[in-house]
Write a structure and sequence with these properties.
- This protein has 311 residues and is of the alpha/beta class.
- It has one domain: Ribokinase (UDP-N-acetylmuramoyl-L-alanine:D-glutamate ligase, 3-Layer(aba) Sandwich).
- The strands form 2 sheets. A 9-stranded mixed beta sheet has the order 5-4-1-8-9-10-11-12-13, sandwiched between helices.
- β12 and β13 form a beta hairpin.
- α1 packs across α8, α4 packs parallel to α5 and α9 crosses α10.
């Protein structure tokens, strides 16, 4: 069985609650909070687990919030390996205003990683007994730049792993410039930044994606198109996958669900087309749930079957 490891450099303990109405100065009485693990790679591992697969979530963790995060993953049955750091893992807040139904997301700065702690993450990758797929997903904490991502990619590549990256901004540009990736999943804005041009039509999207592939930057580019699904581009193939219309409750975790589903299908030997369809199904299924619930397997399988019939 192929081994999947997800890497989250900026994990969080996510606290969700609701209050009747938001207003300044007064005390806002809130519902009992719920806590969930957060961070790109962590949510990818959680999605894989929800879909019946296994993945090891590797992440730096510190303080009581880091301990709480690890316990929550244990409760979900997600294999995890927290790497001790001195700073506390951040805690983020999601608040729903009941009167309007609007959601407010308060994202805190990530825990700092000093030089030795950064080295420990690289060493942990090298010490893994097996590594077939490594997913690097999420933002970077302060003090960590894209050059460090390249070190992590090289550590995974030295183990012969397929590297899947879901990031943004300068870190994404730097790691794509390094090249040799198996998959990147930019949205339209991120793809435009990578190309340094404005994107005005779908033909342009495919041309830019294929130029990255031809240059050896990534074997596959899966461009996220929001409600329009995704555009899969390989060296010899191009496929837009448009999901069915569903009642959208929240977009939180949709991208992570997509990446998790794609990685799981590929690890099971599926073609890129089927893996991308499964990813779009998972991303769509995640939007059907409130808050940060991610995708449900039954919804994913139903949407995947619908997409497969539309070949």
């Amino acid at each position: 069985m192929a081994t999947i490891v997800t890497l989250t450099l900026n994990p969080s303990l996510d606290n969700a609650t609701s209050t009747p109405r938001l207003y300044p100065d007064g005390k806002l009485r809130c519902a009992r909070p719920t806590y969930e693990p957060g961070g790109g790679g962590i949510n990818v591992a959680r999605a894989i687990r929800k879909l019946g697969g296994e993945a090891l979530a590797l992440f730096p963790a510190g303080g009581p919030t880091g301990d709480h995060l690890a316990r929550l993953l244990e409760d979900e049955g997600v294999a995890n390996r927290p790497l001790p750091i001195s700073d506390w893992t951040r805690e983020c807040f999601n608040i729903v205003e009941e009167q309007s139904g609007q959601q407010y997301r308060f994202v805190m700065p990530g825990a700092m990683l000093n030089g030795s702690e950064q080295d420990a993450v690289v060493a942990a990758i090298g010490a893994l007994p097996q590594l077939d797929y490594m997913v690097i997903s999420g933002s970077l904490p302060d003090g960590v730049d894209g050059d460090y991502l390249i070190r992590l990619v090289e550590a995974g590549q030295a183990r012969g792993a397929d590297i899947i990256v879901d990031s943004s901004g300068k870190p994404l540009r730097q790691v794509v410039s390094h090249g040799g990736l198996a998959l990147i999943k930019p949205n339209l804005g991120e793809l435009a930044v990578l190309a340094g041009v404005e994107i005005n039509d779908q033909d342009q999207i495919a041309t830019i994606a294929r130029s990255l592939i031809d240059a050896g930057k990534s074997e596959v580019v899966l461009v996220s198109l929001g409600p329009q699904g995704a555009l899969l581009v390989t060296a010899s193939d191009e496929l837009q996958i448009v999901p069915p219309t569903v009642k959208k409750q929240s977009t939180v975790g949709a991208g992570d669900s997509m990446v998790g589903a794609v990685t799981l299908k590929r690890s099971q030997g599926a073609s890129w087309r089927d893996a991308a369809r499964y990813g779009v199904a998972a991303g769509t299924a995640a939007t059907m749930n409130k808050g940060t619930e991610l995708c449900r397997k039954a919804d994913v399988e139903r949407i995947f079957a619908w997409l497969s019939e539309k070949r």
